[in-house]
Amino acid sequence: MTASWHEQIFFNQAVKRLESLVAHPPMFVATTIPDDEQSQADEQYHDGEADRYDSYSQTPRIAVAERWILSWISRTIPNGVIVDLGCGTGRIARQLADTNRRVIAIDRSQQMLAQAGAALPADTTALLRCDARMVPVADGSVDAVVCSGVLHHIPDWPAAIQEMSRILRPGGTMIVREPNAEYPEALFAPVERAIATMARIASRHQRPAQVGELDQFQPSPVEQPIVLAEVSKQATQYGLRPTWEGSAKFFASLGIPDAVPLQRLYFEVANLVDRAIMNSIGLRRGSLAIGVYTKSI
Ligand SMILES: C[S@@+](CC[C@H](N)C(=O)[O-])C[C@H]1O[C@@H](n2cnc3c(N)ncnc32)[C@H](O)[C@@H]1O
């Protein structure tokens, strides 16, 4: 019997297949997963967040900008075999898993993978539970890797960049997106405080907060600032050439509570302004840093 597409690129001794009774994508688990304290704490946090994680990205503050950022990522990534490293609930993997692409959705968190599995097509995707710093996938075997919102949870994140470079084929693409440590949060803080105060006063007449509203969001115990220039420096060191560096979401990052009237309209307009700046003079101080890299041939 010939091996399936995903088994051909896995280090087969380093993964075990988990049998599932439901028709989800095949699921594998690495035989070795680093067990440092910080990664375990972060894993536990993400296990606990998995069932409501998607509700955060449905709030207008996130959803409006994400709509086009995800489609931008999808247009930027080549066809072929793609790894979504730190896939969470599979938001990006879902976008990518069409007929021209096969996606390996990877995460440390079992609960995140369970959510992803329920939403991904069974024939063009596979799930793999492993650590981003130790991926049981053969050298040079994938066409692209996308790593979204993951590095800031990994204390020694350059090890994940090295691993992404290792599994990429020459000429392959890596896309990294992270909260941008260079976003000038302090600039917006007084405006946000004023809006929050007004919203609190008005909320006596409003509905109670819904699950998924940003003020209910608790950060992970492992979060560290990421500067894109440092990601690019590490990427270059591991044989990846930057082809696009910038950011998204400047005005669209203003923390307007969901209860504020016309909140969605604000984000629609702010998003258009951010995109226009990004596509003309470039946007470096948006809250979301994005880097696109090509593996040297
Ligand atoms: C903020 S979520 C981002 C999820 C998804 N990429 C997205 O953009 O919606 C971060 C994800 O990275 C995973 N993660 C954190 N550290 C990891 C590691 N060392 N190896 C693999 N996954 C990790 C978490 O379990 C979580 O699902």
Primary descriptors:
single chain, 297 residues, alpha/beta, Rossmann fold, nine-stranded mixed β-sheet, 37% helix, globular
Task: Describe what this molecule looks like in 3D.
This protein is 37% helix and 21% strand. It has a 9-stranded mixed beta sheet, sandwiched between helices. Strand 6, helix 7 and strand 7 form a beta-alpha-beta unit. It is α/β, with parallel strands linked by helices and 297 residues long. The protein has a single domain, classed as Vaccinia Virus protein VP39 (Rossmann fold, 3-Layer(aba) Sandwich), CATH 3.40.50. Helix 4 runs parallel beside helix 10. The protein is globular, with a radius of gyration of 19 Å. The mean pLDDT is 91. It is built from 10 helices and 9 strands. The structure holds S-adenosylmethionine.
Brief characterization of the structure:
The protein is of the alpha/beta class and 297 residues long. It has ten helices and nine strands.
Strand order of the largest sheet: 1-2-5-4-3-6-7-9-8
Helix content: 25-40%
Measured on Cα atoms, how large is the radius of gyration? 19 Å
CATH top level?
Answer: Alpha Beta
CATH homologous superfamily designation: Vaccinia Virus protein VP39
Domain count: 1
User: Structural class, from helix and strand content?
Assistant: alpha/beta
Low-confidence stretches: none
Number of helices: 10
Biggest β-sheet description: 9 strands, mixed
> Strand fraction band?
15-25%
- Small molecules bound: S-adenosylmethionine
Secondary-structure topology with pairs:
Elements (H helix, E strand, L loop, with lengths): L4 H5 L5 E4 L8 E4 L6 H13 L3 H5 L2 H17 L3 E6 L5 H6 L4 E7 L2 H10 L5 E5 L12 E7 L9 H10 E12 L5 H18 L25 H10 L2 E9 L14 H17 L8 E8 L2
Parallel strand pairs: 2-5, 3-4, 3-6, 4-5, 6-7
Antiparallel strand pairs: 1-2, 7-9, 8-9
Helix pairs in contact: 4-10
This protein binds S-adenosylmethionine (SAM).
S-adenosylmethionine binds next to α2 and α5.
